[in-house]
Amino acid sequence: MLSYRHGYHAGNHADVLKHTVLVALLRHLALKDKPFRVVDTHAGAGWYRLDHTFAQKTGEWREGIGRVWAADDAPPAVADYLALVRSANGIEVVVAGHGSAASPRAQTSARPVPAAPEPAVYPGSPWIARQFLRPDDRLNVFEMHTSDAPALIDALRGDRQVKVTAGDGYAGLRANWPPPSRRGLVLIDPSYEVKDEYGQVVDAVADALKRFPTGIIAVWYPRLVRRESETLPGRLTRLAPDNWLHAALDVRARSETGMHGSGLVVLNPPWTLPDTLKPCMTWLRGRLALDGEASTTLDWRIA
């Protein structure tokens, strides 16, 4: 039985980084008319109330989305992400030529400070991905937790462009990859509750690259003082040695207890992604740092 529930951690500093990168990747896919597919292997409940007992118990969102919620000076990619979170909270955000933060081709031109002092809800990656789907695009989401899977199904019920499966995301990836259009994005975002999960991630990515060598694969991981965590980025980048990006944000000093930061490894990233993320990493470190040891990593090799 899995014990991890993302509701305790929704909107924390790791979500801010992860979803900023996710939005940038989705924005890139939506630039071309050809359809794409998104596969989310560990989707969670899809939607989180920040006044729920889970979120209130840890209060992690206050050190994540809570610190950037009202920002009006964010770099474009962070502003794009914030526009979506504000839209999820019922705040209209005007964007160039479209009028809605959910428009897949829009670029944020106005960044109003929200009237609400803090967000009430936090959208998970399935909701964020759904905002970018055009009529021919598809989203496959998977969740194994016996409590979160029904919530995810309810959140996306009746949406013909989305298929929700209460089951193993790794098996789901094998069944849905490569996409028929040969354009797609995989988000692998497990809880890493057990050490074997790191090996499962590497195996899943290796298999996905064999099936579709040019597909975009984004893997989130926690920054821990643990060998499995520290070696994961290198194990992943070696699978695509000429096409990868590694972005990480440490919000506090390394510690033997708890997560001091998080990171994403993106294989086959858009060539524009490094320049998109450079100003974001500096800005996020300034906003989310918990002590003087906060730091960022942004490395890449793109053929």
Task: Provide a concise account of the structure shown.
The chain has helices at 13-29, 53-58, 65-68, 76-88, 125-130, 148-155, 169-176, 196-211, 227-237, 273-288; strands at 37-40, 47-49, 121-123, 138-142, 162-165, 184-188, 216-223, 243-250, 261-267, 295-302.
Tell me the structural class: alpha/beta
Q: What is the name of the CATH topology?
A: Rossmann fold
The proportion of residues in beta strands is: 15-25%
Enumerate how many helices there are, as a single number: 10
Helix-strand pattern:
HEEHHHEHEHEHEHEHEEHE
Rounded to the nearest angstrom, the radius of gyration is: 18 Å
Mean pLDDT: 89
> From the 3D coordinates, which CATH architecture would you assign?
3-Layer(aba) Sandwich
Into which percent range does the helicity of residues fall?
25-40%
What's the name of the CATH homologous superfamily? Vaccinia Virus protein VP39
The total count of strands amounts to 10
Q: What are the segments in which pLDDT stays under 50 over at least 5 consecutive residues? A: 94-110
- The CATH first-level class comes to Alpha Beta
Physical arrangement of strands within the biggest beta sheet:
5-4-1-6-7-9-8-10
Task: Please describe the biggest sheet, giving its number of strands, its sense, and whether it closes into a barrel.
Answer: 8 strands, mixed
Shape: globular
**How far is the N terminus from the C terminus?**
42 Å
Instruction: State the domain count.
Output: 1
Your description of this structure?
There is one protein chain. This protein has 303 residues and is of the alpha/beta class. The chain has a single domain (6-302), classed as 3-Layer(aba) Sandwich (Rossmann fold). It has helices at 13-29, 53-58, 65-68, 76-88, 125-130, 148-155, 169-176, 196-211, 227-237, 273-288, and strands spanning 37-40, 47-49, 121-123, 138-142, 162-165, 184-188, 216-223, 243-250, 261-267, 295-302. The strands form two sheets. The chain has an eight-stranded mixed beta sheet with strand order 5-4-1-6-7-9-8-10, sandwiched between helices. Strands 2-3 form a two-stranded antiparallel sheet. The chain starts with 12 loop residues before the first helix and ends with a strand.
